Amino acid sequence: MYRQALECLVDAMSDVSSVFETLSLDRWLRQVRLPFWTPREVRRLRLGQCLTLVDYCGPGLVQGLNGRAQVLVTREEQGFRMESLWTLKPCRVDAEFKPLWGECTFGLAPPRRLQLWCDSAQEAARAQAGFRVASLVLRRSAWLAHLAQSQGHEHSARLTHPALFLSRALRGENGGFLPTPR
Fold first, then answer.
1. Beta carbons of 133 and 82 less than 8 angstroms apart
2. 82 near 71, Cβ under 8 Å?
3. Largest CA distance in the chain
4. Nearest-CA neighbor of 90 among 20, 156, 41?
5. Which residues, 6+ apart, have CB-to-CB distance to 79 below 8 Å?
6. Given a cut of 80, is residue 171 above it in pLDDT?
């Protein structure tokens, strides 16, 4: 009887997205220069709310068009979705910056672990690539903030730092949370 119940539970769990990678949340937060209380802010999200980690407009990759660095975390029914975008050309050097876009679905598990979720092996590779893109956008944004601060541009440094929810002035009335368009 116990065995049948266990098999039934395994069959039911196979329909749900499976965890394919578990990461140390603290190590990742240090790598992308986010404050250690970021998971608390993410957990506070209600269904459909969106937390903006980075949102910065600047010179774009295409001459004459604005670029954007953006990372959003949205609460969904089965966890969280992280979407990232990079279309900035941050320096005058002819370094090759390609436009980047990625998304992944993840969950937060105790003790301070981040779990990437997917349904198939093909989606696993796409989710892992989306997570890498989000990490790269956050690291590049922290790099831009460091450059701006070292040159004395405090306002630009605050805007490009990867944690817009640090300041109430930057959050606006809604506390950093934006309703997700449907």
1. no
2. yes
3. 70
4. 156
5. 17, 105, 106, 107, 117
6. no
